[in-house]
C-alpha cells in the first residue's frame, strides 16, 4: 500500500463504483427493471462488464447497493455529514402526531419517482428471490422498523401504549397496510389514508 | 355453427385451454417465474405457441387465469358445484373468532406450495406491471376483501365495531400486516402472528 499509485487507483475505483450505482438508478427509471441489464449499466457508467461482475453477482445486487446509497445520501443531505441513523424518528411526546408525521413521510417517499421505481423493482425481485429479500429486509426495511420499535417502547414507558403489546407486531399494524397498498396498488396511497391507519391502529376497531 | 364439428372443436379447445393453465402452474413451481416461457408452457401442454398467443398476450396473463381457475376449483371442491362466492366468510357472532379463523386460513393458503409460487409470481409481476396489478387486484384480491367488508358491516350493526369506522380501511388493518410479512418475508408467517394481529387490530395500541 505504498506510493501514489494506490490512492489514484482507489479514487478511480470509487469513481467507477459510484458511476455504476448512478447508472443503475437512471436506467431502472428509464427502461424498467425487467429490461435492466448489466451490459446497459456498464455502457452508461463507462466501465467494462467485468468491472461490474467483479463487485456484484447480479443486476439485483447492483440495484440494492444503489438504493441503499441513495438513502444514505438523502439522510446526509437532510441531517448533515456524520449522522448515524438513516432517519430520525420524532418524539414530541404526542405518539399519534409522531406516527402520522413519519407515515406521511413514508407515503411521500414511496410515491416519489426517485424512490418508487428502484424500491418497487427490489421488492418485486425479493418476492421471487429469497436472498435478495433477506438483504433488502436487513439493509432497507429493518433499520426503519427498529426506529418505530424504539418510539413505541418509549410510548409504552410513558403509558401511551399498552404495556403488554409486542412492539414489533404493533409496528406492522401501522406500516403493513401502507406497504400492502403500495405494493399491490389496491387503492390510492394518500396522507389521509396514512392518518386513518394511525388513528385506527391506536384506537382499535372495537367501540370504546 | 352446424353439425358435430363445432361441439368437438369446442371440447378440444376447452381441453387445450385447461392443459395450458395446468402446464403454467406446474412449470412456475418447477422453474420459477423468471424462467417461465410461453414456449415451455406450449410444449408441456402439447399445443403450439400460437394457440397460447391467440388467447393470452403474455405469460403473466396465462398465469393469472391459471391462478383464478385454481381458486375456483378449490372453492367448488370445498363447497360443491354451483356455489357463487369464492369463499364463505363465517359469521358466528364472535367477530374476533371469525377474523382469526379466516386470517389463519389465509396464512395456510399463502404458505401452501400450490398457491405460494404462482401467487408470489403474480404479486411480483404486478409490482412492476400496473395492468397485471389491476387484474390481479380485481379478480383475486377484491372478492375476498369484499367478504371482509360485509362481515365488518354486520359487526358494526351488532355494535361490535365502532360505527364511524371505514370498513375498507379496517379490513386493511387486519390483512395488510399479513400481506406485507408474506410479500417481504420480514419474519415468519404463523397462526400465532395472525391471532396477534387480529387482537391488536380489535383492541388498538392505546391502553384501555
Short structural summary:
Chain A has 208 residues and is mainly alpha-helical. Chain A has nine helices and no strands. The interface between A and B is large, with 56 and 56 residues.
Give an overview of the whole structure.
With 208 residues, chain A is an all-alpha fold. Chain A has a domain at 89-203: Tetracycline Repressor, domain 2 (Orthogonal Bundle), CATH 1.10.357.10. Chain A is built from 9 helices and no strands. Chain A has helices at residues 5-31, 38-45, 49-55, 59-79, 95-111, 113-128, 130-157, 167-184, 191-203. In chain A, α8 (167-184) packs antiparallel against α9. Chains A, B: It comes from Streptomyces botrytidirepellens. Chains A, B: Residues 37-56 bind DNA.
Give the N-to-C terminal Cα separation of chain A. 69 Å
Largest interface: A-B, 56 and 56 residues
Percent of residues of chain A in beta strands?
A: under 5%
Average pLDDT over all residues of chain A: 89
CATH topology of the domain at 89-203 in chain A: Tetracycline Repressor, domain 2
What is the CATH class of the domain at 89-203 in chain A? Answer: Mainly Alpha
Major sheet size, sense and barrel closure of chain A: none
Domain HTH tetR-type (chains A, B): 14-74
DNA-binding region (chains A, B): 37-56
GO molecular function (chains A, B): DNA-binding transcription factor activity; transcription cis-regulatory region binding
InterPro entries (chains A, B): Homeodomain-like_sf, HTH-type_TetR-like_transc_reg, HTH_TetR, Tet_transcr_reg_TetR-rel_C_sf, TetR_C
Amino acid at each position: 500500500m505504498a506510493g501514489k499509485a494506490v490512492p489514484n487507483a482507489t479514487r478511480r475505483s470509487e469513481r467507477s463504483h459510484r458511476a455504476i450505482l448512478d447508472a443503475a438508478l437512471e436506467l431502472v427509471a428509464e427502461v424498467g427493471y425487467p429490461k435492466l441489464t448489466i451490459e446497459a449499466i456498464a455502457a452508461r457508467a463507462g466501465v467494462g462488464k467485468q468491472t461490474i461482475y467483479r463487485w456484484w453477482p447480479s443486476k439485483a445486487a447492483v440495484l440494492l447497493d444503489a438504493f441503499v446509497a441513495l438513502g444514505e445520501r438523502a439522510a446526509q443531505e437532510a441531517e448533515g455529514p456524520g449522522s448515524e441513523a438513516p432517519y430520525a424518528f420524532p418524539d414530541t411526546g404526542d405518539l399519534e402526531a409522531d406516527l402520522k408525521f413519519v407515515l406521511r413521510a413514508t407515503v411521500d417517499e414511496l410515491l416519489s419517482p426517485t424512490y418508487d421505481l428502484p424500491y418497487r423493482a427490489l421488492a418485486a425481485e425479493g418476492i421471487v428471490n429469497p436472498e435478495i429479500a433477506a438483504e433488502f429486509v436487513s439493509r432497507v426495511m429493518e433499520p426503519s422498523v427498529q426506529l418505530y420499535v424504539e418510539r413505541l417502547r418509549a410510548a409504552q414507558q410513558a403509558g401511551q401504549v399498552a404495556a403488554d403489546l409486542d412492539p414489533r407486531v404493533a409496528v406492522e399494524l401501522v406500516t403493513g397496510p401502507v406497504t400492502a397498498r403500495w405494493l399491490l396498488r389496491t387503492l390510492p396511497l394518500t396522507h389521509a389514508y396514512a392518518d386513518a391507519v394511525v388513528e385506527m391502529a391506536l384506537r382499535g376497531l372495537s367501540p370504546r
